Amino acid sequence: MNSQPRITTDYQVMLGKPIINGTRITVELVLRKMAQGATANDLLAMYPHLSNDDVLACLDYAADLAANEETIRAA
Asked: How much is the pTM?
């Protein structure tokens, strides 16, 4: 899945945090709710205007960030 069409950033919306396109729901909110035990179905019930693809796009976005993360060790 390509999260790019569903996840956007705009400094005028939520100070530029990544959000689900067309909403003010941040990727961070979705990830934190899931980390606290919420399921995709829980999120869809809490935010009826979201789709399952929106939730998956948040996970994909986070996976892309983790995949490109590098750790630099001090000598």
From this structure: 0.86
